[in-house]
Amino acid sequence: MDLNTITAVSHPQTRSELPVWTPGDAWLAGGTWLFSEPQIHLTRLIDLADLKWPALTITDSHLSIAATCTISQLDAFTCPPDWLAAPLISQCCRAFLASFKIWKTATVGGNLCMSLPAGPMISLTSALDGICTIWKAGGGEQRMPVADFVIGNQRNRLSPGDLLRQIDIPLPALKRRSAFRQISLAPVGRSAALLIGSLDGNGALKLTVTASTVRPIQISFPGPTDASTLRTAISEEIPDDLYHTDIHGKPLWRKHMTLRLAEEIRAELLGATPS
Questions:
Q1: What is the pTM of this model?
Q2: How many CA atoms lie within 13 A of 244 on its CB side?
C-alpha cells in the first residue's frame, strides 16, 4: 500500500538523532501493518532500521530481544540446552497468521505495540516474565512487565513519542518447564485462545492467558493445584467482560476454551489426568 500522505522519512542512527515527535509521525520497523492499509493521518515516518540494534543478546541475567528483532530471527535463534521453555519460541512464532515473507519483516516490538489480543509475541514475552524498556519521548527510560504493558485491545501504555526499545526475558523463566495450548476457529485462523503454563523448580505454577482475553492475564499458584482450584481462580481473575469478542470467537466460547486448555496445561505439567 502506497502511503501518499508521507512527506518525509527520517533515518536516525542514534537516540540523540531521534527527531522531536510531532502529530503525524509514526515509527517504522517492519511496517507489515503500517503499509497494509491507508494511513491518511500520517505525514512522517521515523525509520528505526539504521539504529542497528542487535536482534538478540544473552547476558548473565537475561535474554534481550530488540524491538526490531524479526520473527524469523527469533525463530532461528539457537537456545542453550538448559532453556526448557525454548520450544515456546517456535510455538508462538507459528501462532502467527502470516506468510514467510511477513516473518522476515514483522518485528517482535511491532507485535507488542499493535497490542492485539491474538499477538503471539505478547503471549510469549508475558508468559516468560518479559520486561519492556521504553524510551520516553521526553528523555529517560521506563521499565514495566509485558503483562502490564498491554492494557486492552490495541491499547498499551505508550504515550505519543514513546519508543519500545527492547524486551528482557529473565533466564530463570527460560529454564522453567512449560506447556502451550492454542486454538482457532479455522485451521489457519487467528488465535482465539492461547495459553501458556510454566512450572519452576519449587513446584510453583504460573498460567498466562492471552488471545481469549483483551489483555494478558497471569494467575500464579505457589504449588501444585487441583482442577477445581484452577477453575475457581480463572473465574475470579477473569471477569466475563475481559473476554474478547470478534469474528474469530465469541466470549462464551473463548471462556469455555480457556478453562479447557488451562486444565490440559495443569494436567500436563503436574502429570495428572485432565478433569
A1: 0.95
A2: 29
